[in-house]
Write a structure and sequence with these properties.
Layout (H helix, E strand, L loop, with lengths): L2 H20 L9 E10 L2 E11 L2 E10 L2 E13 L5 E14 L3 E15 L5 E7 L2 E4 L5 E2 L2 E11 L33
Antiparallel strand pairs: 1-2, 1-10, 2-3, 3-4, 4-5, 5-6, 6-7, 6-8, 7-10, 8-9
Length: 189
C-alpha cells in the first residue's frame, strides 16, 4: 500500500470520526431490531445480519465469499442519528475467521465506520461502510475494503417518530394520591 493510499484512508477515518463532534445525535438511532441482506464489496460479497441488542448498539454477522477465500465476521456497532432516526452513522469493532485456498486458515481484527439509511415507507436499509482489518496468518497484514449493504427489515421497532412529542406515552393514566394522615385538604377535618 502506497503512502498516498494510507493518507486517503487516514483522512477518511478522520472525517468520519470528526462528524461525531459536529452532528448532534438524535434521540433514537435506529428504526428496526433485526435486518438481513446482501453485502457487496470490491473483492467479496456475502450475507449480513444485524440485530439490535441495546438502544443504539447492534451486533452484525457477516458471511463473505471472495475469489480465493471465505470468512465470517462478528462486529459490535454503536449507531448515532443524523437528522432523525432514518439516517445514521456508526462505528464498531470485531473479529473474523476464514480460510484462504492458497494459505489456509486466517483470522484478524476489524474496525468499522459507516453510514446507514432506512428507506421511508419501505422495509429496506442501505449502508455504506469502510472496514479496515488487521490480518493474522495471512499474506496481507492489513486490508482496507469498503462495501455497500442492502438489508431487509425483519423486525421493526415499535416506537413511532412522534413518541414523546405530545407528552410521555408511557405515563400511567391512573393518578394515585397519597392518603396518609399528615396531609389535610381544605374540607378535611
Amino acid at each position: 500500500m502506497t503512502f498516498h493510499n494510507w493518507l486517503r484512508a487516514g483522512a477518511l477515518l478522520l472525517v468520519v470520526s470528526g462528524a461525531d463532534a459536529l452532528l448532534a445525535p438524535a434521540a433514537q438511532a435506529q428504526k428496526y431490531h433485526t435486518a438481513a441482506g446482501l453485502r457487496l464489496g470490491k473483492n467479496n460479497y456475502g450475507l449480513t445480519v444485524q440485530q439490535k441488542i441495546f438502544e443504539k448498539t447492534t451486533l452484525e454477522g457477516l458471511a463473505l465469499v471472495g475469489s480465493r477465500e471465505v470468512s465470517a465476521t462478528v462486529l459490535a456497532e454503536r449507531h448515532f442519528g443524523i437528522l432523525g432516526p432514518s439516517l445514521n452513522y456508526y462505528f464498531g469493532a470485531g473479529g473474523h475467521l476464514g480460510r484462504n485456498k492458497d494459505t489456509g486458515g486466517f483470522g484478524g481484527f476489524d474496525a468499522l465506520a459507516g453510514v446507514e439509511y432506512k428507506v421511508a415507507f419501505v422495509p429496506l436499509v442501505l449502508s455504506l461502510d469502510f472496514k479496515p482489518t488487521v490480518e493474522i496468518n495471512s499474506d496481507d497484514w492489513a486490508r482496507f475494503p469498503t462495501a455497500l449493504s442492502l438489508r431487509y427489515v425483519l423486525i421493526k421497532d415499535k416506537s413511532s417518530v412522534f413518541d414523546g412529542l405530545f407528552g410521555d406515552k408511557k405515563k400511567n393514566k391512573k393518578k394515585s394520591k397519597a392518603r396518609d394522615g399528615s396531609r389535610k385538604g381544605l374540607f378535611d377535618f
